[in-house]
């Protein structure tokens, strides 16, 4: 299966991305002309989702490398991109690869070539990885399953068919009947705006619910399994993902429903021991006090807006990766 859009394109030396802030109302592609534009696009969720952030940031370094007159300027571009969002490990994985290239060469010409090649490789590999996650995850979804997902860990979050949605797409291709439930995912509404939009393009039955309906749905036996994505997986198997993931995992455990996390190895952080050590991004209060620019809370209200939370490994039934399904973390 291939969805009818590209989240990112490298065309004639130009970096072009699908502007996800415009979805589902408009399909708009934007060129990101320099590293500042790439950094702003990542910060403002023009592109988002851990694997896609990694690939776009890698191309961002390529853009910077072609514009740079010195190696120091490329190092500064990498630092800028590292500072955009703190949680998704894929960003840091990609930036570390870029640093390795800078450690190896001094001349700008080979640096530019290697950086672009590396970005292209990450892009192509991500596409293949999504397919493999889909293949490994597909057998976990029974015919007729009602699947709950969260946020957007689909094609829009990657350069392929997604992570959490990949097993769903593969199951649909095999002719299974399915129903996907999607929480709207406040504050930025990735579930409502993005996951619903991409699933509706494929014909897979999908129902949108507000986030606080989920307890009711578990209690009424409306969910057979949960699949979510991940922004970072620590050494002990804890998963950091979109705010609300923890709550779903607790509900799934209480109701004895399988809870799967689908993620590539580029999301596994070998340096951090446990989920509580991961920096959780807190975003602008306006994301909470406004919806689509319309004020929904009184002026001056105090806001707490963490956008990720941590699912402890003991709540996770399995990790669907490109190499297979891990059911036990050692
Ligand atoms: O804030 P976002 O939209 O970047 O958050 C995205 C998620 O939480 C996804 O579940 C995660 O990045 C995995 S994407 C395959």
Characteristic key phrases:
38% helix; 3-stranded antiparallel β-sheet; binds 5-S-methyl-1-O-phosphono-5-thio-D-ribulose; Four Helix Bundle (Hemerythrin (Met), subunit A); 330 residues; alpha/beta; 15 strands
CATH architectural designation of the largest domain: 3-Layer(aba) Sandwich
Strand content: 15-25%
* Overall number of strands: 15
Distance between the termini: 34 Å
Structural class determined from secondary elements: alpha/beta
What oligomeric state do these chains adopt? single chain
CATH superfamily of the largest domain: Translation initiation factor eif-2b, domain 2
Main sheet characteristics = 7 strands, mixed
Helix content: 25-40%
Shape: globular
The radius of gyration over CA amounts to 19 Å
Helices and strands, in order, run as EEEHHHHHEHEHEHEEEHEHEEEEE
Kindly describe this structure:
This protein is of the alpha/beta class and 330 residues long. The protein has two domains: 8-132, translation initiation factor eif-2b, domain 1 (Four Helix Bundle (Hemerythrin (Met), subunit A)); 136-326, Rossmann fold (3-Layer(aba) Sandwich), CATH 3.40.50.10470. Helices cover 38% and strands 17% of the residues. It contains ten helices and 15 strands. It has helices at 35-43, 50-67, 71-82, 89-104, 108-137, 166-173, 190-200, 214-219, 245-254, 286-289; strands at residues 8-11, 14-18, 29-31, 145-149, 178-183, 206-209, 225-228, 232-233, 239-242, 259-262, 290-291, 294-295, 308-311, 318-321, 324-326. It has a seven-stranded mixed beta sheet with strand order 6-5-4-7-10-14-15, sandwiched between helices. A three-stranded antiparallel beta sheet has the order 1-2-3, with helices on one face. The radius of gyration is 19 Å and the shape is globular. The model has no long low-confidence stretch (mean pLDDT 97). The chain binds 5-S-methyl-1-O-phosphono-5-thio-D-ribulose. 5-S-methyl-1-O-phosphono-5-thio-D-ribulose binds at residues 48-51, 88, 151, 153, 157-158, 163, 190, 229-231, 241-242, 307.
């Amino acid at each position: 299966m291939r969805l009818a859009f590209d989240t990112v394109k490298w065309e004639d030396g130009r970096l072009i991305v699908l502007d996800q802030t415009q979805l589902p109302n408009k399909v708009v592609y934007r060129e990101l002309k320099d590293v500042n534009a790439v950094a702003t696009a990542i910060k403002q969720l023009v592109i988002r989702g851990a694997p896609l952030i990694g690939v776009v940031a890698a191309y961002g370094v390529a853009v910077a490398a072609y514009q740079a007159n010195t190696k120091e300027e490329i190092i500064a571009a990498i630092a800028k991109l590292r500072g955009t969002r703190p949680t998704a490990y894929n960003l840091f994985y990609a930036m570390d690869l870029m640093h390795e290239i800078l450690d190896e060469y001094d001349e700008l010409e080979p640096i530019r070539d290697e950086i672009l090649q590396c970005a292209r490789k990450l892009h192509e590999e991500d596409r293949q990885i999504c397919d493999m996650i889909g293949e490994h995850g597909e057998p976990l979804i029974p015919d007729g399953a009602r699947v709950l997902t969260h946020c957007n860990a689909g094609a829009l979050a990657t350069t392929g068919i997604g992570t959490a949605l990949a097993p769903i797409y593969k199951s649909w291709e095999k002719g299974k009947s399915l129903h996907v439930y999607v929480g709207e995912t406040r504050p930025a509404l990735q579930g409502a705006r993005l996951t619903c939009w991409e699933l509706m393009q494929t014909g897979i039955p999908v129902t949108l619910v507000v986030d606080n309906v989920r307890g009711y749905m578990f209690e009424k036996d409306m969910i057979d399994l949960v699949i979510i994505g991940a922004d970072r997986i620590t050494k002990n198997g804890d998963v950091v993902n979109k705010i609300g993931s923890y709550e779903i995992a607790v509900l799934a455990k209480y109701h004895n429903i399988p809870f799967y996390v689908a993620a590539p190895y580029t999301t596994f952080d070998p340096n951090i021991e446990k989920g509580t050590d991961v920096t959780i991004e807190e975003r602008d209060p306006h994301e909470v006090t406004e919806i689509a620019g319309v004020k929904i809370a009184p002026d001056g209200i105090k806001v707490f807006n963490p956008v990720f939370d941590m699912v402890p490994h003991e709540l996770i039934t399995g990790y669907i990766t490109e190499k297979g399904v891990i059911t036990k973390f050692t």
